[in-house]
Amino acid sequence: MPDQTERVEEFRLRARAWLAGNMPVLAPDAPPPERAEDDETWARDKELQRMLWDGGFAGICFPKEFGGLGLSIEHQHAFTEESLPYEMPLHLNVPHFSILGATLVDFGTDEQKAKYLPPMLKGEQQWVQFLSEPTGGSDLAGSLTRAERDGDEWVMNGSKIWSTAAMSATHAMCLARTDWDSPKHRGLTMFIMEIHQEGVQIDPIKQVNGSLEFCQEFFDDVRLPPDSVVGDVNDGWTVALALLAHERNAVGGGSPYVSGRNYLAEGADGAFDASCVKLVTSRGTADDPVARQLVAEAHVLDVVQRGLVKRIGLGMETGALVGQSAAITKLFTATSAERKTTIRLELAGPDALTWPVGAETIGRGAGEDFLERQATSLAGGSNEIQRNLIAERVLGMPREWAADRDIPYKDVRSNAMPTSPGG
Amino acid sequence: MNLGLTDDQQFFQETTRKFLEQEAPITTVRALADDENGFDRGWWARAAELGWTSFLVPEDDGGGSLSGEGVVDIAIVAEEMGRLVSPGPLVPTNVVADAVARGGSDSLRAEVLPGIVAGEIVGAWCLAGPGGGWDAHGVAVSATREGDALVLEGVSTPVEHAGQADELLMTARTDGGLVQCLVPASAPGVHSEAIESVDLVRRFATVHVDKVRVAADRVVGEIGGAAEAVERQLHLAIALQSAEIVGALDRVLEFTLEYLGDRSSFGRPLASYQAIKHRIADMKMWIEGSHGVTELAVRAVQDDDPEAVEIVSAAKSYLGDHASEILQECTQLHGGIGVTWEHDLHLYLRRITLDRNLFGTPAQHRERIADALITKHGTATDLEVTGA
User: Can you list the domains of chain A with their CATH numbers?
Assistant: First the structure.
């Protein structure tokens, strides 16, 4: 590390002082932030991000020449630890910074980075990913959305789905097929798309818990400029793989681009999750031996996750572990979230089933969380895909047989792409 | 392996692995199954030359660590021993070394520590009573004052390598709290009765103490004030035990993967079946999680972290549950050969089973965690915590 780099502890002290003087303080028992499903929440996050930017604490691990601070993950961890008592723009962490920003750092041209990274860091933009399609989620390279050349420009048609918070977003990275004569993985290109333009229709999807975070998009002759290609034309799969690795890392809790508490990876940042203790104390079951076992089991999962994230992060940084090892943290986070959600349901007993009209009780939270328990196990690559990755890519076990390998994609059997209900 | 080791520590880890592969391969472990002591004293002295019993002893007392972090250093040895289900009193001797180095009088340190460092003195720690409680409540030895001396009375079991030990660290209760003292195994009134164990080479005994007089300079720490030291020793023992478990798990996964790659059924390698790949993937996740939490536990003990109980007991309960399941899963994947004496799997299953319950079961450690969490965070809260 060069001498001029600020030492972590000095940085921490400077961050502590700045946070105390500038960021809004959270109540000591503040709940996790609301789901970001309305424009108001996003406006607030963008405002908070602007405060970080003005204070010189935006983009701690992003490159210096494009508006970041160019510091190490240890600096970021120190800042996160100091930031826990304050209101932070947490919704922008995933996917905006840790997936899309990270992929742009890896594959963007200098022109693209100069054009997009500073506004991302200032909170002027909000990026999302357009990857899954209605015809299939796990088989991501089977993309049927198409982009065709028209002079210098590209024209895109098709549909994407399960994109979080696309309604309020400004930009997306979108994977589309650009060569139908090549085999599956070799005919894809990654594009940057400005979302609010002619030909893009966005419909919200209501989830079991009532959330409207997810969206489906329909593209009808959407025009994209020549500089919207990320990486090389027909090499979009390389970009997508890197993007997915960033996603696993972000959801698993190991991303250097997440600033502030990571609620997707509970426990990873060492912050104590008091929900189970609160459940048993509020319900008067703190002396029940079975309840005590469950409280401890949930905490054990958090402690293990903290150790796992630290270990895998270090191993990938030094090269001791292969990049796909992030699948291990992703699978752990998801399966551990499943178990903890079930534990909270058990601890909440009848309080998870009924609650006073309009009240946001801890029991209601336990009940409603259970309804969407599998979300973490599906998002960012299902548990089954992570298990394939661990077995095949981390441990070198034989690959699964695939019917679509090495044949032109136009000859591959696929599901029918739905058309826009509006157009 | 701990991924955060220094170059010196990595070199030491390689040296340790070579030493064990040459001087205590699995064939030797199998041969020692019929040996009364379970390990060879000459071999132990050679191992001690590598530093195995000196890392927790200060330089002034003749010891010294590799990195300035003796617990991290000794965990490297424990992990390598796990890979080969090695024999030897690593944990008990180091626990005794740590306790004496921290709480022993000048004369006791001078008397005992050089011998431990040289591998000439083997230690054992008498903690639990017959009830199976691995904490203050489980202690079944009492100490009463008689002039300057203490008189010990009671029983401790199971005590690892008590029958081979030269010095016994006795944890006892007094009217005013716990006390610890170091008693020569040959002292009048000390009687070690060998018992059998599930492990092939780790030896255990029940230690009876009948009116054993202990001089004041053999008291370790303050009379009645030993509770903190006992906790520290328990944490140290569990951290090293955890390191041993992850070493064993790494090795078991290695040879299971080899077997699945070599063995075919229905015309294809077992390793090519997704039903098997997904089970292996889960095991890999548990093993990496075990490594991660072990590294945290070792760090917590190294740093005397005030929250060590939550971290160490998390490691103990997570590894206890998962390591034994991984061994059973690997046995299942091996098929019939996995349940034969000939195959090495059972040596690992034995060690993992021993480590699962020794120093407390997973459920006992979850209770410790719940106690710590509810005491610390369990003030009454409103039902409506998040507001309307």
Answer: 8-123 (1.10.540.10), 129-241 (2.40.110.10), 266-381 (no CATH)
